[in-house]
């Protein structure tokens, strides 16, 4: 596809558009722009896919930039899916100069295992080692 660029950094993101996209995602239905911005500001990296100036994709990374990184909120606008743009975003993230020391990457997916396996992800090797605290999600009006 022509006119496609990947950009990173808060100043490059269209947070109104990102909120519109993420609020349709099953994992954060109804998310508000202030939550999206707060999450982005507290992330190690935010990335967007653009056609000219129109943002059509988003992802972010939480990381110590040394050992561990967690990729989340990966989203590509429905009308642009199945064109490899999600993979391009992940490859951009994995190759980002600020994250070159990271040796353990994690993400959670319900339905995109094929996308992530194409860029090197495998199921967690020791799933019984992982633990979590899961609280109820905040109510969104």
How are the elements arranged and paired?
Elements lengths: L3 E5 L6 H8 L10 H9 L3 E7 L2 E10 L4 E9 L8 H10 L9 E4 L5 H5 L24
GO molecular function: acyltransferase activity, transferring groups other than amino-acyl groups
Keywords: Transferase
Organism: Neobacillus piezotolerans
Structure description:
- The chain has helices spanning 15-22, 33-41, 85-94, 113-117; strands spanning 4-8, 45-51, 54-63, 68-76, 104-107.
- It has a 5-stranded mixed β-sheet, sandwiched between helices.
- The radius of gyration is 15 Å and the shape is globular.
- It starts with a strand and ends in a 24-residue tail after the last helix.
- It has 141 residues and is of the alpha+beta class.
Keywords for this structure?
141 residues, alpha+beta, Aminopeptidase, five-stranded mixed β-sheet, 25% strand, GNAT_dom, Acyl_CoA_acyltransferase
